[in-house]
Amino acid sequence: MKKVLIIEDEEIIRETVSYYFTHEGYEVFAAGDGQKGMDLFATHSIELVILDIMVPEIDGWTVCRRIRRVSTVPIILLTARNDEEDTLLGFELGADDYVTKPFKPSILLARANRLLKYHSVQQTQQLDSIHLCGINIDKLARTVCIDGKKINLTLTEYEILVCLMEHKEQVITRETLITHIWGYDYDGDNKTLTTHMRNMRMKLGEKSKHITTVIRVGYKFEVEK
Question: In this model, does residue 95 exceed pLDDT 90?
Fold first, then answer.
């Protein structure tokens, strides 16, 4: 049973959408504000998020950004505003789809099903290998090739590259990378990550252009560069 989190402050909309998804066989978690939504996300294995932008406590933009720091779960934004800038900002923050109110619950459900199907396919493909921009990672053999030529990365450099490529076009914070590689109890110097990143970029050569440093935040693997 797929778990969906609905974060919507309008009770009628929240209950209507919850009904449709429950009837479709989803396990539904619902919140009327951003803080409660984040709490539910942190305590359940959520597989899809339907998020209203204008929720109280923590706004939808911030919720979207925080979820994207730790998860690739599909996110559908809901808004009463039909503004192109809002749409672009939502996609920049990592949203997968955008629905303008008023909407038909059946249409929202169809979009959700499509996203989950696509996400499932992507996850299956990512289990064994990653292929982006001439960089090929065989996760079973733990090898990295550039345009067919193998390069030798340390285990840490390999883990950094895999994390960035699996979350392409998303900003991964330094804290997220450190936790991913060394764990929550890591108390070393942040310069250690910087050193590994520099060494990895040297080995990637011209392909290192795809890894962008986001000042005071972290790093991003950009497909188009």
Answer: no
